[in-house]
């Protein structure tokens, strides 16, 4: 499971070390950890004419050519038609306020009608102001 891209649909086979990774950042992290033990293992994924991808839905391997890649036509798995070329969802920090379900307890919601109702309750039959002073 990739922690960099949340909606990852394919795995990438790194031609440098012949291992499967969810993204290039995962490859860099793992090779950095290994490089701390052995300095000869430092490497990046080299650019190639063909990339090997593994679909996470049907578990089949296929190849694409990045130079000739068209997002609309080639962005699908050739076996199961799973769309792997999608906009990446990356994790980001958010501040959320949680409350009880408003369908059960709506006390946290401000009802805009309450102000109008209060104005109507404050009116008296004997007031000489506003709508209450009119006869008929």
Strand content of the residues, in percent?
Answer: 5-15%
What is the CA-atom radius of gyration, in angstroms? 31 Å
Residue-averaged pLDDT: 76
What is the helix fraction of residues, given as a range?
A: 10-25%
Low-confidence spans: none
Largest sheet: 4 strands, antiparallel
The total strand number stands at 4
- Write out the strand line-up for the largest beta sheet, numbering strands in chain order: 2-1-3-4
Count of individual helical segments: 3
Structural class: alpha+beta
Q: Secondary-structure element sequence?
A: EEHEEHH
Distance between the termini: 74 Å
Which descriptor suits the 3D outline?
elongated
GO cellular component, one term: mitochondrial intermembrane space
GO molecular function: zinc ion binding
Pfam families: zf-CHY (PF05495)
Organism: Polychaeton citri CBS 116435
How would you summarize what this structure contains?
Keywords: Metal-binding, Zinc, Zinc-finger. The protein has about 140 residues and is of the alpha+beta class.
Describe the structure.
There is one protein chain. The protein is built from three helices and four strands; from the N terminus they run ββαββαα. The protein has 136 residues and is of the alpha+beta class. A four-stranded antiparallel β-sheet has the order 2-1-3-4, covered by helices on one side. β1 and β2 (19-21) form a beta hairpin. The longest helix is centred in the N-terminal third of the chain and has 14 residues, at 24-37. It is elongated, with a radius of gyration of 31 Å. The mean pLDDT is 76. InterPro entries: Mito_Tim_assembly_helper (IPR052604), Znf_CHY (IPR008913), Znf_CHY_sf (IPR037274). Keywords: Metal-binding, Zinc, Zinc-finger. GO terms for molecular function: zinc ion binding. This is CHY-type domain-containing protein.
């Amino acid at each position: 499971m990739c922690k960099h891209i949340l909606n990852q649909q394919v795995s990438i086979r790194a031609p440098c070390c012949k291992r499967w990774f969810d993204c290039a950042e995962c490859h860099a992290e793992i090779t950095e950890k290994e490089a701390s033990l052995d300095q000869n293992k430092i490497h990046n994924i080299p650019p190639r004419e063909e990339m090997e991808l593994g679909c996470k839905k049907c578990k089949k391997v296929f190849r694409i050519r990045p130079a000739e890649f068209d997002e609309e036509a080639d962005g699908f798995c050739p076996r199961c038609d799973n769309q792997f070329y999608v906009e990446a969802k990356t994790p980001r920090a958010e501040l959320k306020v949680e409350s009880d379900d408003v369908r059960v307890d709506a006390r946290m919601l401000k009802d805009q009608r309450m102000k109008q109702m209060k104005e109507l309750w404050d009116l008296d039959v004997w007031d000489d102001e506003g709508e209450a002073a009119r006869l008929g």
